[in-house]
Write a structure and sequence with these properties.
Blueprint (H helix, E strand, L loop, with lengths): L1 E12 L2 E12 L3 E5 L6 H8 L6 E6 L4 H6 L4 E4 L14 H6 L14 H13 L15 H13 L5 E5 L7 H18 L2 E5 L3 H7 L2 E6 L1 E7 H6 L1 H7 L1 H7 L3
Helix pairs in contact: 4-5, 7-10
């Protein structure tokens, strides 16, 4: 079953095309690595999927518009690069940040309930950070903050999780733990994952499919097909080896 269908999607910024008629389908349980050079349209694609910018073409979630999809209690979790807006003095506890993940889907007046805090604690438990619940979020390490944000994205048990270069601010060890957590979510909960990555070498360790963008789709398919393809070898050269080194 297709969770997402993208059909002839184009995005322009002041007349300049950032994405040009791209089409692809995402199946349930896919773990897709979205890669490509700087400025190739990766973030633009994510913004279009999240309904944040105008576009031409069609984007459907299980055959529905984003609005209908979320209306039918389906959820898309989104995790940005890092909490760059949070300094050390930011006056919020970790659990408050996690619980705020429910605001999106509440009717007015938007108030957090005891149930919301219970859900927040459960999401933190999944990521092994329940013990951090009362800590000021600005005092946590980069890896811990990223787990707080991931818990926030998971509070609704999303069907689709979109991550935009979420490991940029992490040290290598925190990065590995983070990748392992995402992999587990994909394998055990069958969460469909779209993972934008600069680091195509790391992405190749986990993803099941690769979407290589350069304003258009250069390659979309399974990692096995990518690694076997001589055309891709011509196009990517050493990069193909980097992506495929575990295969
Ligand atoms: P990536 O995430 O792959 O680095 P982006 O989607 O951020 O690429 O950008 C794709 C292209 O669109 C780039 O040429 C970028 O300069 C341009 N672009 C992105 N956002 C804007 C914007 N808000 N206004 C004008 N141009 C933009």
């Amino acid at each position: 079953m297709n969770v997402i269908e993208v059909n002839k999607l184009s995005v322009q910024y002041r007349g300049v095309e950032a994405l040009s008629r791209i089409s692809f389908d995402v199946e349930e349980g896919d773990y897709i690595g979205i890669v490509g050079p700087n400025g190739s349209g990766k973030t633009t694609l994510i913004k279009a999927l999240l309904g944040l910018i105008p576009y031409e073409g069609k984007i459907l979630f299980q055959g529905k518009s984003l609005e209908q999809f979320t209306h039918s209690k389906k959820h898309i979790g989104y995790l940005p690069q890092k909490m760059s807006f949070i300094d050390e003095m930011f006056p919020a506890k970790a659990i408050e940040i996690v619980a705020s993940g429910v605001y999106c889907c509440k009717k007015f007046p938007k108030r957090l309930t005891g149930e919301d805090y219970k859900a927040a604690l459960k999401a933190m438990d999944i990521l092994g950070i329940k013990n951090l619940k009362d800590r000021p979020v600005g005092k946590l390490s980069g890896g811990q903050q990223q787990r707080v944000l991931l818990s926030r994205a998971l509070i609704h048990q999303p069907d689709v999780l979109i991550l935009d270069e979420p490991t940029v601010a992490l040290d290598p060890q925190a990065r590995d733990t983070f990748y392992a957590t995402i992999e587990e979510l994909n394998k055990e909960n069958k969460t469909t994952i779209l993972f934008v990555s600069h680091d195509i070498g790391s992405a190749g360790n986990f993803v099941s499919k690769l979407l290589y963008l350069d304003r258009k789709i250069v390659f979309f398919g399974t990692l096995d097909d990518f690694c076997k393809s001589p055309q891709m070898s011509d196009y990517f050269g050493h990069d193909q080896h980097l992506i495929c080194h575990r295969h």
